[in-house]
Amino acid sequence: MTAEDKAFLLDKLTVRAAFERASHHCDSAARVQRELGERLMEHLEPVRLAPARVLDLGAGTGELAKALSRRYRKSRILALDLAEGMMRVARGKTRRFCSRQDFACGDAEWLPLAAERMDLVISNSALEWCNDPDRVFAEVLRVLKPGGLFMFSTLGPDTLRELRESFARVDDRPHVHGFIDMHDLGDALMRAGFTDVVMDTVRLVAEYDDVAALMRELRTLGATNALSNRCRGLSGRGRLNRLVEAYEAHRRGGVLPATFEAVFAHAWRPKSNSRAGVRVAPPRL
User: What is the H or E stretch that residue 268 is in?
Assistant: First the structure.
């Protein structure tokens, strides 16, 4: 692990605790995550696949799992998340009887599942909360059946660039997570043994009245600073005022923008040991 990797190492206990606290109200703020989930489902439309078992990895409150149940009515859907609170909320959204949905807690880097159980693994905006994508991809490959499909969305390095730039004018401490470049993720998929890897990226811009609204939405989502080397002291009013002043330089048309670089990928576990290259889809703006 490089020095840069260590600088963006996440404290997984902090990650879990933040999502536990957010589990009962995060749906109200999950507009970007909903958009990514809807686009993931659109990516599935041209895929000819009739999976018997589907894993929703990093399922949160189960919105994507519900959509998968509607699409694959005969499939068994397993929703898995690091936070137990998220799974309680997800379970509460499903009918009690004749449901084909199951729920489990687990870490994407150490899946509590037997090998070759899943026909489809799908993950929406969860990979950015993992420290080791290589480990995640190896685990996904392990639980997929030969010929199975892995599809995910995550966030790329341009995400929250305005917030990162503004914090950099306040101090030199890390306040915003590092996000992995699309091409590096494609290379990691290949290293894991996936084939026919296709990567795609699109930039979304959310708008806020002020910095407080952005920070409030991130807290509601559970997307707080979980870096292992984060500053654990309280932020003084002076530092917060300097952050607001720095972010105001980004104001356009009366609103403050926040960029989210969405990365989409799909890849297959090979039926044999054959391999193929990574293909980058044309960028969509």
Answer: strand 256-268
Residue with tokens 């199975």: 148
Q: What does 38-59 look like in DSSP terms, one character per residue?
A: HHHHHHHTT-----SEEEEET-
Distance separating alpha carbons of residues 237 and 91, to the nearest angstrom: 41
Residues 6+ apart with CB under 8 A from 198: 265, 266, 267, 278, 279, 280, 281
Give the pTM: 0.89
Residues 223, 225: Cα–Cα separation, whole Å: 7
Domains of the chain from N-terminus onward? 3-156+178-205+260-280 (3.40.50.150)
Per-residue pLDDT of the chain (285 residues; tens, 9 = 90+): 554 555 578 889 999 999 999 999 999 999 999 999 999 999 999 998 999 999 999 999 999 999 999 999 999 999 999 999 999 999 988 876 667 899 999 999 999 999 999 999 999 999 999 999 999 999 999 999 999 999 999 999 999 999 999 999 988 888 888 899 999 999 999 999 999 999 999 999 999 999 999 999 999 999 887 777 666 544 667 788 999 999 999 999 999 999 999 999 999 999 976 554 555 555 554
Question: What's the sign of the alpha-carbon dihedral 247, 252, 257, 261?
Answer: negative
| φ, ψ (nearest 5 deg) of residue 144 | -75, 145
Give Cα separations from 72 to 41, 42, 65, 119 (angstroms). Answer: 11, 14, 10, 12
Which regions of 34-192 does DSSP assign to beta strands (E)? 53-57, 76-81, 101-105, 118-124, 144-155
Say which amino acid occupies 122: I
**Which two tokens mark 158?**
């341009």
The angle formed by the CA atoms of residues 195, 199 and 227, to the nearest 5 degrees, is 105
Residue 98, number of CB atoms within 10 A of its CB: 5
